[in-house]
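(Deposited chain)
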Amino acid sequence: MIKTILWDVDGTLLDFDAAERAAIRTLFDAFGLGECTDTMLARYHEINIGFWQKLERNELTRSQVLVGRFEQFFNEYGINTETAPEFNQRYQLTLGETIVYHDDSLDIVKGLKGKVRQYVVSNGTIAAQTKKLDRSKLGEQMDGIFLSEELGVDKPDIAFFNKVFSAIHADDLSTIMIVGDSLTSDILGGMNAGIRTCWYNPEGKPLPDTHKVDYIISDLHELTDLLV
């Protein structure tokens, strides 16, 4: 029986892509950088994913990821890269201003409160996630929040999960399940940690042979059936 859920935030409980697009367009206006087109947003999205995957593989530090993604993005579009550090700093706060829930996620989390223990496990920055969790009201529904920037280690590293397990006094890993959209962060992390994995896959992407997933859901409402 599943007694504890570890929730990813971006791309799982919340629509990160919508917040990302809104934040970047807002800051392009604020910095006087002109129009940020759909094509530019799509390219930034690719760059951002690539940088975070390098962090997950311990190829880059967090600071290198946060500023480096904008440096590359700006360089490709002829924007002064010296703006990148300040742009990133403002981005962390602006990112939390647009809240779009996936599949009534707030109601789902509320409905599970008291039935299972629920914790946030996120690689997002403290500044961005604190604001998101506050504005979305998701944070107040959780039994605890674990951010990799605070723990000093990122998903999917086993050390991240060991710190979480220690803090929540986990005594039976078979009763813990991580729910997330990222195969390289959430699912691989769950595999490394020896807990159950639930891949949130609303787009119906194929599952690569390299990953073992206990459950696959396309809508967060399906989670209820897994807890019976």
Summary: Residues 38-56 form the longest helix (19 residues). Strands lie at 4-7, 117-122, 144-147, 176-180, 196-200, 215-217. The chain is about 50% helix and 10% strand.
